[in-house]
Write a structure and sequence with these properties.
This protein is mainly α. Helix content is about 60%, strand content about 5%.
């Protein structure tokens, strides 16, 4: 997890810092005030983004909301050319984001979370990530659930995820280019900086994050000629550090708080607040579960429906006609492995080469229907391997706890 975060941070820094130094809209320091706080947001937000943007909406959509949709037109959507699916996914997701974003500005309680993002006084690529975790969960859910429910293919969703991440950093970057007609095709820094401008009335404009057509349709598109925002930020006094910003939305003045809770608006929005509370508690519980199982959150959620065998059951011979497949790296396999197992790294399975190897192993088996037991160090990679292999028609199970669990009951020979 953390090496991937570091790689992503360094890649973005190497791309955007030279561009912002050479073509800056505003003269400002690279390591400006709040830089360390935003770096912490980058690390924490990476994990939360994966949880909120993939695991929870996917579970909700696939488990509940898909029942409301027709599989016929879902198939029609997923069978379109990838470029068509990508364009449609961008538009649909940005419609969801637009609605969430308008609510963040219109509802005082939600604005306190969103004000953290608008507290940015120096716009640059890193300012993108200054987003309160509650807001991140809220907006990602509005974005991702619709595209899951509509049935876009996994390849299209993967391309959308890349585009969504890239454009988020792009639109906040400190670049002075005149993007011309591109401003009508995708959201650009030239558009989005006006949304952050600390000027009267500007916060009600340019809510879309990817597709400016959405702003145009709702009358919130704003792009003045020959003018740039002079300054950014909010009128509220927002703490400068991460922990202060994390708890800021929950610090209410007693009279104002009681007035809000006694209002008809709060009464009407009670289901929403209950839903947010349940979502936060659910994500927290899932996160602790994922950590306990040494998995990232999407893999942990995916593991729920993967058939498993325990090390004790395997050692006692509860399964017959077994083929053991180690999906770790060759280096790990050479260091320690379960006796009689065959190495087929996850990297090969993901490219398709490993799928062919395992199919040949099953065909070469003296038994007509062998059970293929996938194992890794602790279970995460075997879950990913199972998802790649489940469509082959062969019988797969995952070794719960991986070779670590096996070594608790069986010592190396």
């Amino acid at each position: 997890m953390f090496p991937d975060v570091l790689k992503g941070f360094l890649f973005l820094a190497f791309v955007f810092i030279p561009l912002e130094r050479g073509f800056s809209l505003h003269e400002q320091l690279t390591f400006r005030r709040g830089w360390t706080t935003d770096t912490l947001y980058f690390v924490v937000g990476n994990f939360i983004g994966k949880a909120a943007g993939v695991a929870i909406p996917a579970v909700l959509a696939l488990s509940f909301l898909n029942r409301l949709t027709g599989s016929g037109w879902q198939t029609a959507i997923s069978s379109q050319p990838i470029i068509s699916q990508l364009i449609e996914a961008i538009f649909v997701a940005d419609l969801g984001y637009y609605l969430a974003h308008r609510m963040l500005h219109a509802i005082p309680f939600l604005w306190r979370f969103h004000a953290i993002h608008h507290s940015i006084k120096y716009m640059d690529w890193l300012s993108t990530v200054r987003v309160h975790p509650v807001e991140q969960i809220f907006t990602k859910t509005f974005q991702v659930i619709p595209v899951f429910c509509l049935g876009f293919s996994l390849k299209a969703l993967g391309l959308y995820a890349i585009f969504s991440s890239a454009i988020a950093f792009f639109i906040h970057s400190n670049l002075r280019f005149n993007f011309g007609i591109l401003n009508w095709i995708i959201v650009t820094p030239q558009l989005h900086h006006w949304h952050h401008a600390k000027e009267e009335g500007i916060l009600t404009q340019n809510f879309a994050a990817q597709c400016p057509l959405v702003d145009f349709l709702f009358g919130t598109f704003y792009l003045p000629k020959n003018k740039i925002p002079a300054r950014y930020g909010v009128t509220e006094l927002i703490p400068g550090g991460y922990m202060g910003q994390l708890f800021y939305p929950f610090q209410f003045k007693r009279k104002r708080t009681m007035k809000f809770f006694q209002s008809s608006l709060f009464y009407q929005l009670r289901p929403f607040f209950i839903g947010v509370g349940i979502s936060v508690l659910g994500i927290g519980s899932l996160t602790f579960g994922a950590i306990a199982h040494r998995m990232d959150l999407p893999t942990f959620v995916s593991s729920w429906t993967v058939p498993k065998v325990t090390a004790t059951e395997l050692q006692q011979g509860h399964l017959k006609n077994v083929i053991l497949v180690d999906v770790r790296t060759p280096e790990e396999y050479a260091e320690d492995r379960i006796s009689g197992s065959v190495l087929v790294p996850l990297s090969e399975i993901e490219t398709g080469l490993g799928v062919k190897k395992i199919t040949k192993l099953a065909q070469a088996s003296s038994h007509s229907e062998p059970t293929i037991v996938l194992y890794c160090a602790a279970g995460a990679r075997s879950v990913k391997a199972y998802r790649r292999l489940e469509q082959t028609g062969l019988k797969f199970v995952s070794l719960a706890g991986g070779i670590n669990a096996w070594r608790e009951i069986v010592s190396p020979s």
